[in-house]
Design a protein that fits this description.
Elements lengths: L11 H52 L5 H49 L3 H5 L1 H11 L4 H30 L1 H31 L1 H12 L4 H9 L3 H53 L5 H43 L21 E9 L9 E10 L4 E5 L6 H8 L7 E6 L2 E2 L5 H6 L1 E4 L10 H6 L9 H11 L2 H4 L22 H15 L3 E5 L7 H14 L4 E5 L3 H4 L4 E6 L2 E6 L1 H7 L2 H18 L1
Parallel strand pairs: 3-8, 3-9, 6-7, 7-8
Antiparallel strand pairs: 1-2, 1-4, 4-5, 9-10
Helix pairs in contact: 1-2, 1-5, 1-10, 4-10, 5-6, 5-10, 6-9, 6-10, 7-9, 9-10, 14-16, 19-20
Bound molecules: adenosine-5'-diphosphate.
Length: about 600
C-alpha cells in the first residue's frame, strides 16, 4: 500500500483491464453490445462519406450522359440510410450506456461497502488506509466508470482508424503515409504537454485537501461559529488564496506551453493535409480518380486526424482517472489483518465470562518505525458481573486496554483469556456480540431516536418497553418527552422536521443504546464527559442497579463515580500502578488515595464557599 501521493504508474491498460473485470461481472451482455455498437458508430461515418462522393460522381456522370437517375437514387438511399441507422442507434447507445452505468454504480457501491466492512478496526484506524481512502475518494468510483468508457471510446476509435486506413489505401497508399506522418507526433505532444497539466493537478492534491478543509470552516456549523467569534476569516481566507493562486499560476504556465506546442502540431498536420490535397487534385486533373474520390479523400483524411487526436486526448484523461481507480483497486485488494481462525470456538455468551489479562503488552502496529509500547506487562482479572473502573491521566493506555479487550488488536505479548480460553481462539463475531462498547469518540447517528437506540440491538425486533427503560436509565427520556414525535423524532437538522441535540444529549442517547444492548460486558469510555452532574449520578446508579449480574467496565476521570466499583485499575504510562477496591486503595494510601483526597477536598471547599 503506498501512502504518498506520487503518481501511480501501474499502466493504464492494466488498470483498465481490472475495470473491464467489473463490467464483465455486472452486465457483460450490455458491455459487449455497447462495444459492438461503438465499433459500428466509429466506422459508419465513412459510409456517409463514400455515399456522398458517389452522389457527386453520379451527378457528374448524369450531366455527361454516362449514367442514369437510378444510380443517383440508389446512392441517395444509401446516404439516407447511412444517416438514419446511426441516428437511431445513437439513441439506443445512449440508453444502454445509462443503464450500464447505473448497474455499475450500484455494483461498485455494494462491492465497496462489502469490502470495507470486512476490514478489521486496526486497518481502518491506520493512517495508510485513511490516506488511501481519501485519495480514492477524490474521484469516487467514477474513476472506474471512466476506464470503462475508455473501452467504448477505444472500440469506436480503432474501428474508425481502421476503416479510414482502408479507404485511404484504396485511394492512394501515399495518403496512408501522409496520414501516419501527420498523426505520429500527436501522442508525444499529449504525453509531454497535456500530461504536464495533469501532473501539476496530481501533485497539488495535498494543497487541495488543505483548501477544502479551510473552506469547510466557512460552511460547517461549529467551525463557522468559531470563525466569527475568534475572527479567523482573514487567516483561513489567506491560506485558501495563497494555495489557489500558486496552483493557478503553475497550471497557466503549463497551459501556455501546451497551447504553443499544439500550434506547432497543427502546422505539421496542415503540411500533410496540403500534400494530400495536392496529390489528389493532381490525380483528379489527370483523370486517374473521380471528383468524388477527391472529396472522399479529403473527408476521410480530416476525420482520421480528428479521431486520432480525440483518442489520444482521451488516453491522457483516462491516465488521470486510472490513478484514482488504482487506489480503489488497492483498497479492494486489502484483506483484514485480524480475523477469526477457521477452527475458532463458537460461543454464545449468555452470562458474562471471566476475563484475565496475563502479562499483556502492546504497541500499535507501526506504519514505518517501531512504535513504543503503550501497554506494559499488565495483569488483572475481571470476574463475571464485576463493576470495574479504569482511571489514569490522558494517554495512560485506558482506551487501548479496552481495544485489546474488544480484540480490535491482538496483544504484542501476553494473553487475554476468556473463561480460560485464549481470546484469539474464540470466534471474533461471537466475542464482539458479547460486548457493548461506547467509546469516547462515539458516532452521531442521523436517525430517529427509536432507530438510534435500536442500533444497540439491531438483530432483534424493537422492544418498546426495553427502549423506554434504556432511555430512562440514561436520562435521555427527559428530552425525548419534550419532542412532539417522541421516539420518532428525527435527529438531523438538515431535514425539514429534524432537530439537533446538544453534545450531552447525544451522549445520553449513546448511553441509552448501551443499556438497550444489555451485553454480557458493557464498556463505557468516559460516558459522562459531556453530561451534567445530576444526570451522571443517575446513570451511575442505573448502572449499579440495573446491570446486576452483568460486567461493566467504566473509564472515567471522576473519582466520585468509581468509589462503588468492585475493582479499580489505576494506569500510568501503560502500567497498572494500583489495583483494588476503593477501600483497599485508600488503605494503601498511595497515588489513588492522594488524588481521591485532593478531588474530594476540592468539592468540600466548593461546598463551604
Ligand atoms: P487514554 O485512553 O488513557 O487517554 P490511549 O489508550 O488512548 O490513552 O492512548 C495511549 C497511547 O497510545 C497514547 O500515547 C496514544 O498516543 C497512543 N495511541 C492511541 N491510539 C493510537 C493509534 N491508533 N495508533 C498509534 N498510537 C495510538
Amino acid at each position: 500500500m503506498s501512502k504518498d501521493n506520487t503518481p501511480h504508474d501501474k499502466g493504464l491498460f492494466a488498470i483498465a483491464f481490472k475495470a473491464i473485470g467489473f463490467a464483465w461481472r455486472t452486465d457483460r451482455k450490455t458491455f459487449l453490445l455497447l462495444i459492438l455498437l461503438n465499433v459500428f458508430n466509429g466506422s459508419i461515418v465513412y459510409l456517409q462519406f463514400t455515399s456522398f462522393s458517389a452522389i457527386v460522381d453520379d451527378i457528374i456522370a448524369i450531366k455527361q450522359g454516362t449514367s442514369t437517375m437510378n444510380d443517383l437514387i440508389r446512392s441517395a438511399v444509401i446516404l439516407g440510410l447511412s444517416f438514419l441507422v446511426p441516428t437511431l442507434l445513437a439513441n439506443l447507445v445512449g440508453f444502454l450506456r445509462t443503464k450500464f452505468r447505473m448497474a455499475q454504480d450500484l455494483y461498485l457501491d455494494m462491492y465497496r461497502v462489502d469490502k470495507q466492512s470486512a476490514l478489521d478496526i486496526g486497518t481502518i484506524e491506520s493512517s495508510s488506509y485513511q490516506n488511501l481512502l481519501r485519495s480514492a475518494h477524490e474521484w469516487g468510483t467514477n474513476s472506474i466508470l471512466g476506464l470503462q468508457d475508455f473501452v467504448f471510446t477505444s472500440a469506436s476509435s480503432f474501428a474508425g482508424i481502421f476503416t479510414s486506413m482502408i479507404i485511404l489505401w484504396s485511394l492512394s497508399p501515399w495518403l496512408v503515409l501522409f496520414a501516419a506522418l501527420a498523426a505520429a507526433p500527436i501522442y508525444f505532444f499529449y504525453k509531454k504537454y497535456s500530461m504536464e497539466v495533469f501532473r501539476i493537478r496530481w501533485l497539488s492534491i495535498e494543497d487541495y485537501r488543505v483548501i477544502s478543509n479551510r473552506l469547510s470552516h466557512f460552511e460547517e456549523m461549529q467551525k463557522a461559529v468559531d470563525l466569527i467569534l475568534l475572527k479567523l476569516k482573514d487567516w483561513f481566507r489567506g491560506q485558501i488564496y495563497d494555495r489557489l493562486s500558486n496552483y493557478n499560476s503553475k497550471v497557466i504556465r503549463a497551459e501556455r506551453k501546451k497551447s504553443l506546442s499544439y500550434g506547432v502540431l497543427s502546422l505539421w498536420y496542415l503540411l500533410f493535409l496540403f500534400a494530400a490535397i495536392a496529390l489528389m487534385t493532381k490525380q483528379s486533373l489527370t483523370g486517374s480518380i473521380a471528383v468524388g474520390a477527391l472529396l472522399l479523400a479529403f473527408n476521410t483524411y480530416t476525420r482520421f486526424y480528428q479521431t486520432v487526436n480525440g483518442y489520444i486526448e482521451s488516453i491522457s484523461i483516462t491516465e488521470e482517472s486510472s490513478r484514482y481507480a488504482a487506489r480503489w483497486f488497492d483498497l479492494f485488494a486489502l484483506e483484514p489483518k485480524l480475523t477469526s481462525s477457521p477452527n475458532a470456538m463458537r460461543v454464545k455468551f449468555e452470562q458474562p465470562p471471566r476475563v484475565e489479562f496475563r502479562n499483556v503488552s502492546f504497541r500499535y502496529p507501526g506504519e514505518d518505525a517501531e512504535s513504543p509500547l503503550v501497554v506494559k506487562n499488565i495483569s488483572f482479572t475481571i470476574s463475571p458481573g464485576e463493576k470495574i473502573a479504569i482511571i489514569g491521566v490522558n494517554g495512560s493506555g485506558k482506551t487501548t486496554l479496552i481495544k485489546l479487550l474488544c480484540r480490535t488488536y491482538d496483544p504484542t505479548e501476553g494473553q487475554i483469556l476468556v473463561n480460560g480460553v485464549d481470546l484469539k481462539d474464540i470466534n471474533l463475531r461471537d466475542w464482539q456480540s458479547a460486548i457493548g462498547v461506547l467509546f469516547q469518540d462515539f458516532p452521531l447517528y442521523h436517525l430517529t431516536i427509536r432507530e438510534s437506540i435500536g442500533l444497540g440491538n439491531i438483530l432483534t425486533p424493537v422492544d418498546e418497553s426495553k427502549m423506554a427503560e434504556a432511555a430512562r436509565y440514561s436520562g435521555a427520556d427527559e428530552f425525548i418527552e419534550t419532542f412532539p414525535r417522541k421516539f420518532d423524532q428525527l435527529i438531523w437538522k438538515e431535514f425539514r422536521e429534524g432537530t439537533d441535540l446538544s453534545k450531552g444529549q447525544h451522549q445520553r442517547l449513546a448511553v441509552a443504546r448501551m443499556f438497550y444492548r444489555n451485553a454480557a460486558i458493557t464498556i463505557l469510555d468516559e460516558p459522562t464527559a459531556s453530561i451534567d452532574a445530576v444526570t451522571e449520578e443517575k446513570i451511575f446508579s442505573s448502572l449499579e442497579e440495573n446491570m446486576e449480574g452483568k460486567t461493566v467496565i467504566l473509564i472515567t476521570h471522576r473519582f466520585s463515580s468509581v468509589k462503588n466499583a468492585d475493582k479499580i485499575l489505576m494506569l500510568e504510562q501503560g502500567h497498572i500502578i494500583e489495583q483494588g477496591s476503593h477501600k483497599e486503595l485508600m488503605a494503601l494510601n498511595k497515588k489513588y488515595a492522594a488524588l481521591y483526597t485532593m478531588q474530594a477536598s476540592r468539592y468540600l471547599q466548593e461546598d463551604e464557599s
